[in-house]
Amino acid sequence: MATIEIDGKSLEVENGTMIIKAADEAGIYIPRFCYHEKLSIAANCRMCMVDIEKAPKPMPACATPVADGMKISTLSERAVEAQKGTMEFLLINHPLDCPICDQGGECPLQDQALGYGKDVSRFTEKKRVVEDKDIGPLIATAMTRCIHCTRCVRFGQEVAGIMEMGGTGRGEHMEITTFLGGSIDSEVSGNMIDLCPVGALTSKPYRYSARSWELQNHDAVSPHDCVGANLHIQTLRNEVKRIVPRDNSAVNECWISDRDRFGYEAVNSPERLTQPMLKSGDHWEVTDWKTAFSKVVQGLQTEINSAGPEGVAALISPLATNEEGYLFQKLLRSMDCDNIDHRLRQVDFLADSQQNLYSGAELPLEKLSTISSVLLVGSNIRKEQPLLGLKLRAASLGGSKIYAINSLDYHFNFKLDGALIVEPSTVPAALAGVALDVSRIVGTDLPEQFSAWAQLGGNRDVYSDIAEVLVADSAESLIILGDSCRQHPHYSVILAISNWIREVCGVKRIDLHEANGVGLTQNGCVPKNSENNALNLVSNPRSAYLLYGLDCVEDSIYGNVLEDSLKKANFVVSFSAFKSESMNHADVVLPITPYTECSGHFTNVEGMTQRSNAAALPRGEARPGWKVLRVLANQLSLSGFDFVDLNDVNSEMENTISEKPFEYPHDIEITLPDKHNGQDSNKLFHRIMDVPIYRVDPLVRRATALQKTADNSIRPIAGLNVEQAREFTLRDGTLMNVVTPEGNGISIQVQADNRVPVNCIYIPAGYIETAPLGVATHLTLEEV
Amino acid sequence: MLSDELISKINKEKTKYPIARAAVKSALRYAQEEHGWISEEVVRDVAEVLNLETIQVFEIATFYDLFYTEPVGKYQLRVCTNVSCMLRDSDSVVSHIQKKLDIKTGETTADGKFTLFEVECLGACGGAPMMMVGNEFYENLEPDTIDSIIEKLGASE
Amino acid sequence: MTMVKQFFKNFFLVELLKGLRVTGGQLISKKITVQYPDEKTPKSPRFRGLHALRRYANGEERCIACKLCEAVCPALAITIDSTEREDGTRRTTRYDVDLFKCIYCGFCEEACPVDSIVLTDIHEFHFEEKGMNVIDKVKLLEIGDKYERDIASARHKDAPYR
């Protein structure tokens, strides 16, 4: 500990702390541009000059560690002179275009020029002009304003993991730019907008649409992934203008992903539903809520009378809030119906019968950045859960070992110590291979049921590497199951094996969910009888369907099966915030509001329940989902729906959820590997599926800027192993026919993709175009 | 794009430093010796060999004046226009070369032989006005000595 | 002696005549009463009347939608919506002034970095229908176009004192 004195205030601080940090903690403000708590120290803006007793000249507070007995002054004549001088230099080339600059009003340069600058500039020469760059659809640039603090460069290099920005040239000719003006493709690039202390990098979708001082802040939580990033939704005259992060060290620190930041564009899209609608013949008629409700009540009662409550099936989007989920299932269960599910991207439900309601993370997400070893199974964590990807990168930089078992050789933003890229059907086998080596190390026999899988997995060196690392520091080790596991036809096997590993050596596990999956599971949006799971509800047509917040085909991986069932159904009600293709099969459409207009709670994968507040009033006649469900229940004369406000719903929910300790399925009968794996037939390709980052939910699919990014293609593009693509003499973008064994086929653009292993073809889900393939695991490929 | 010899040279440089980024400068120097200038492909390839981002290599390529990010002539005529040379009328040296080669400062002749640069003091004030071509200093320049130097260089292959 | 003086003053009606001199003087002096509306008093170039939005000489509107006038307005009389115009410049899509709320303080003009919003010397205006009190961007630009010469000359006259 060192005793220092800043502006006459005596402080006790840790040795090696930088002066600026000590001052921040003591509440003494030192002006700065390049210094940022989460980034490395650059000391290149020179704004944080302070006067240190006995030092021959002013020193930068961000790069000067404290020493015992140091006497620092931030207000002495020398310090003030240094700050004023620096500010004068910074302003030499900075244009005075604050009135048209989006940063105006929230600009550190503006504020500090006022607080620490001189009142006039002595510079009369010509200012330097730098050409603006087009660096993609998310970030607008005005590089003349840049003061070269290099925060964006350091963010890319250190936090995001891809260095896309850099400083080229030298001195007067220095420019911050991308290589040859290329676009910025990081999934967390929006944070550079927040970091930029001037208006050089600003938000493109928000460009010129509002001023910071007139925006109203609303505390919300991101629904797009299972991290639950804390947001400020900012509105002007009841319109969402932009979203910025809200600091929460336990969840998102000060970052949010681009999906969280720019997903709001959907809320203002012309595709919003603003009035209840009824289908009459082949066109839609706008109606009022009263008529719409009576139509729903009438339709539901007719179907229940003829087909019984089992004739009704309810499917809910994982984006729904806990309250919506709770009321939705309560409505169904009040009608004696158990047909409710939110897991439209899951195929294997065998684990259900044994599984505890809540399976999520076994450790706080905060700990992820300090974990010592990680095994990723079936996860492109960087695009599925961008913020967890950042945490893993931080862990990796801190020396933790990260291994992956995947079907696609994803480009991560952290270093993999070992990767096993196998065709999808071998993923459980590979995990069993790891389990076998774990059993050897800890001296426990591998259960017989896993042996068949382990045999299929073969013998690979990387298994023992992974096993050794996991066992070595098991309390600080982690297995992460990603989206590809959840979509895997043997999800229950992966769960069971990972669980066995967890039990014998004590590693932790995170089972990543979609959006608010944990909250919906906890609040009953899963069937009590596993037979009534989403896949069954969809593939055995019911007479009535209630769809909640879904775009059907894109929001499930079942493809056209759901559409066919909806066509066969007598009565379909769609609760939706947007016009979508699922409307074509609905009889009544009830407009609900997206999360920006609906308060509620989201539970993240760690089990942390956070409240998200409505930021704007509902558009048109649309109403928050929980209100719609409450009134619908009243109209159906169901009892127990006399809620006045959200708190009433909440307090009832709290009484119904009983949190139990983790219990994972392990003694369930697991399925054995398919003997016929399609290997004998050369013509069959394994299908690798994932849902691309900007196709996951109805909001991001309608966020126009996100749709234009490099991470998204408007039409799906299939990927083929580079070697095999050569056999097909494939030029990039060639159309090929892809056909399932059942004979459903599509033609799709195919390109060589170096991430794809041999005998596999990558075809993304989340597109209408790829829906006919459904969940087929094997495909034949023909040239058109 | 890069020759095998060059790649092995770069890899050897890489072993000299704790981080690959430190080897960029030497790598670029070798690459420029081979290719004459640092093109987009050279940056990409060097980045690939060193396992760095392209922008990290590009930053360094643009930082140093002697890395050319645009094609240059076989010979670069660097005429000093700093104080001592200026007092000895380096301006007329520059204009003479410009007229003779029909290029402006910073430009390359159509045959790709010469590029003209104005540079700061090279420490040969005793022989002002002077210019540097390759590693050679040519001092006490006069119109006819300039002509002979250019003709000599132009004739060589 | 004083009494004698007082007597003569009273006897010759000096006070009365003094008063009548003022009256007589006013009778023949130039009148300051103006026959409004046929005649009008001169106005200071700083007079603050009806609002206008100005253009540059090339016809481009000056307003850059910085919203400083909206922020400074003590009566919240100004409402602005802005967006990026096709050519990439920052422009208003809406510029409404509520003349009922406006207190003609002139802060908007003071705040404007491009001399776009100005208060003209027009003070004779009225509304005949509900809602006419809110004047929009089109109307404001029209006023600006129509009175640009007056506006410019008033600014010019006032310039040395600013």
Our estimate of the beta-strand percent of chain C is 5-15%
Order of helices and strands of chain B: HHHHEHHEEEH
Mean pLDDT of chain B: 91
Major sheet details of chain C: 3 strands, antiparallel
Give the terminus-to-terminus CA distance of chain B: 24 Å
CATH superfamily of the largest domain in chain B: Glutaredoxin
The backbone outline of chain B, from C-alpha atoms, is elongated
Q: How far from one another are the termini of chain C?
A: 60 Å
Q: What's the structural domain tally of chain B?
A: 2
Descriptors for this entry?
heterotrimer; A: 784 residues; alpha/beta; seven-stranded mixed β-sheet; six-stranded mixed barrel; 23 helices; 32 strands; 27% helix; globular; B: 157 residues; alpha+beta; Arc Repressor Mutant, subunit A; Glutaredoxin; 2 domains; four-stranded mixed β-sheet; 7 helices; 4 strands
Question: What would your notes on this structure say?
Answer:
- The complex is a heterotrimer of chains A (784), B (157) and C (162).
- Chain A has 784 residues and is an alpha/beta fold.
- Chain A is built from 23 helices and 32 strands.
- The longest helix of chain A is centred in the middle third of the chain and has 19 residues, at 289-307.
- Chain B folds into two domains: 4-63, Arc Repressor Mutant, subunit A, CATH 1.10.10; 75-154, Glutaredoxin, CATH 3.40.30.
- Chain B is built from seven helices and four strands, in the order H-H-H-H-E-H-H-E-E-E-H.
- The longest helix of chain B has 13 residues, at 143-155.
- In chain C, 35% of the residues lie in helices and 15% in strands.
- Chain C has helices spanning 2-11, 14-28, 68-72, 107-111, 137-158; strands at 51-53, 78-84, 90-98, 117-119, 134-135.
- A three-stranded antiparallel beta sheet of chain C has the order 2-3-5.
- Chain C starts with a helix and ends with a helix.
- The A-C interface holds A 98-100, 104, 207-211, 213-214 and C 64-68, 70-71, 82-84, 89-91, 113-114.
